[in-house]
Amino acid sequence: MPNEHETVGAYALGILDDAEATAFEAHLAGCEWCAQQLDELAGMEPMLAALADLPDSGSTPALGESLSARPSPRLVEKLVDEVSERRAQKRRKGFYLVAAAAALIIGGPMAVMAVNGGSDSGQTATPLAASAQTTFDQLPDKVSGSDGATGASATVAMGEKTWGTSAVLQLKGVKGPLKCSLIAVGKNGERQTLGSWSVPKWGYGIPDATSPEAKKPLYIGGGTALKPNEIDHFEVMTFDGKKLVQVDA
C-alpha cells in the first residue's frame, strides 16, 4: 500500500478496496493533514465524478475496455497537488490581507515600545517605532487638548484617507501603570477605538522625571472609518472608564 498521506485522493475517489479503505480510515482518525485534504476534496465531488469517468491518463483503452476505468495514480496525485496549491494560495491571500490591514494602523503597541526605547530589558528602538513619530510630524492637521485635573495633554495629528482618517496621538503627562485607549467620537455620537496601549509606572512625557524614557512623549497611531469632518472629538480613556484628556477636532 502507498504512503497513507498519498492515499487521500484515491480514498476520496472511492477506488480503494475494502482493506485499503479500512487502513486509511484508521490513519485518518489521527492525521489532521489528511483530514484537511479530504475536507477540500469533499467539496469537489462533481469534478471527482467526472475524473473517475475519464480513461487512465497516458494510456489508450484496449478494444472492448470500459472508458470508466479507474484514474491512474498520477491523476490522483495531480488532483491532490492542485488542492494543496489552492489551499496554499488561500493562506497567502489571507496573509497579504492581514499585512495590508496592519499597514493602515501605524504604530500600535510595538511602535510605542520602539519610540520609547524598548522594554524593561533595554532593547533598542526599531524602525517601526520611529515611523509613528515621523507620521505625526507629516500629517497636516493637528488638534490639541489638556486636562488640568489629570495633568494629561494630547495632540492628535490627522490625515484624510479614502477609507476614513489616519491619526497619530502624542500623549504627555501620564503616569502608570495604566491601560488606555484612543477613541474617536463622531458628531453623531458614534465611538470608534483607534488603538490601545499600556502605560508603564514611570509614565510618558513627564518633564521632571529622572528617567530619560519617562520624559519622552508617547506616539501611537491608528485609524478610523470616520472622515475628519465627521469627528467631533477624541478621548484618551483608561480601561476602567476614566477620561484622561479630551481633544476637540
What does this structure look like?
The protein is an alpha+beta fold. The protein folds into 2 domains: 4-104, no CATH class; 108-248, Immunoglobulin-like, CATH 2.60.40. The protein contains 8 helices and 8 strands; from the N terminus they run αααααααβββββαβββ. The strands form 2 sheets. The protein has a 4-stranded antiparallel β-sheet. A 4-stranded antiparallel β-sheet has the order 5-4-7-8. Strand 4 (178-186) and strand 5 form a beta hairpin. Residues 52-71 and 93-130 have low confidence and may be disordered. The chain crosses the membrane at residues 94-115.
Keywords:
single chain; 249 residues; alpha+beta; Immunoglobulin-like; 2 domains; 4-stranded antiparallel beta sheet; 37% helix; membrane; Znf_put; transmembrane helix; Putative zinc-finger domain-containing protein
The domain tally reads: 2
* Major β-sheet strand ordering: 1-2-3-6
Shape summary: elongated
Could you tell me the CATH topology label of the largest domain. Answer: Immunoglobulin-like
CATH class of the largest domain: Mainly Beta
Write the CATH architecture name of the largest domain: Sandwich
Continuous helix count: 8
Derived from helix and strand composition plus strand pairing, the structural class reads: alpha+beta
What series of H and E elements makes up the topology?
Answer: HHHHHHHEEEEEHEEE
Report the mean per-residue pLDDT as an integer. 73
Beta-strand level of the residues, as a percent range?
25-35%
Q: Compute the gyration radius: what is it?
A: 30 Å
Distance between the termini: 71 Å
**pLDDT under 50 segments (min length 5)?**
52-71, 93-130
Largest sheet: 4 strands, antiparallel
Transmembrane segments: 94-115
Keywords: Membrane, Transcription, Transcription regulation, Transmembrane, Transmembrane helix
Protein name: Putative zinc-finger domain-containing protein
Domain Putative zinc-finger: 8-35
